[in-house]
Amino acid sequence: MSKQPARARKVDARDFLGLDAKLSPEERLIRDTVRSFVADRVLPEVAEWFEAGTFPKEMAKEMGALGLLGMHLEGYGCAGTNAVSYGLACTELEAGDSSARSFVSVQGSLVMFPILTYGSDAQKQEWLPAMARGDAIGCFGLTEPDSGSDPASMRTAAKRDGDDWVLNGSKMWITNGGIADVAVVWAQTDDGIRGFIVPTTTKGFTAHDIHKKLSMRASITSELVFDDVRLPADAVLPGVRGLRGPLSCLTEARFGILFGVVGAARACYEAALDYAVTRDQFGGPIGRFQLTQRKLVDMLIGVNHGALLALHLGRMKDEGTLEPAQVSFGKLDNVRMALGVAREARSILGANGITLEYPVIRHMNNLESVYTLEGTNEIHTLVLGQAITGLNAFT
After folding, report:
1. Beta strands 280-281 and 221-231: pairing type?
2. Which of 141, 252, 333, 353 is disulfide-compatible with 346, CB 3.0–4.6 A?
3. Of 262, 267, 264, 272, which is closest to residue 305 (Cα–Cα)?
4. What are the catalytic residues?
5. Which residue stretches of the chain have pLDDT < 70?
6. Residues whose CB is less than 8 angstroms from the CB of residue 227 and which lie 6 or more positions away in sequence, other chains included
7. What tens digit of pLDDT does each residue of 317-344 get?
8. What pTM value is reported for the model?
């Protein structure tokens, strides 16, 4: 008796490798909740925010009510989720826009994380519950006009004056700077680089928003200026000295990015796929052409590779085995992948790909910034080079 051929299992073009099944019910619930929030609150308006160069400050409290702010941290009103759940939230937020993921990332990983990890009990009590609710917005002051990839060369300095500290200098390209209530600022001191909690109402503090950006337009980016900013003795983060402090924060933020950009890539791939099967040219949909299918397949593979890598690194982080160089691996490769997917998607959409009617050019422009922020592609390349050779190429 001849055997009947087995019926081929149909694959899902939007979950080709079945990664949904690799998530726990709680992880899927968090992902789906954030996806619904993005669909309801971000996607309908983000093109207008991008065009106007603004971000609605009131989103902070909405994100806080969902438990998104500091969601991977424990205590003080934070949700205390696992790392994978936080990563999945970043994926969904960035599928909306990099600005939404960046807001959550800066708040949780760059401001709340150092206060929780290195702050005093009083500092934690004062700032973390308010930040978790979205009642207070934070920013992270590390990069300077002449000190980006080499933070050890920062010029911002804090000097002792009696029991107080006096802070002078400036920081550049600071996300949320113009809408922040508090800044975690890193400065040179006689005792090495230290972190300071600086309320933005402090005399001598000013923030100047950066305009005429063509990327991350739905995110507030600012210069911070400190002109004899006087801070009390307890403004300093007591638990860390040296570059270990700010670099540990950047590792936390890079973890959110390596998940987040998968969302941007996925949004571009899905927009191109939908367009390819509905756009008719030469008597039929352009998705039937071999060159178009090759582009779609390359995007599909890139997005799924990125999602697999992110999930693997997320599981490692939850196990406590993830190293900073492995985070650099994920940040470097997934951002590079996402930027390539966005550019390929733009080509499928043709002239429509450069309008804000579709998400592709917005994601593509944003990813040009993500390629550089939280460590440039070149810096992560050298981090990986040092990790595999044991030789330092930075000096």
Report:
1. unpaired
2. 353
3. 262
4. 374
5. 1-9
6. 168, 204, 205, 206
7. 999 999 999 999 999 999 999 999 999 9
8. 0.94
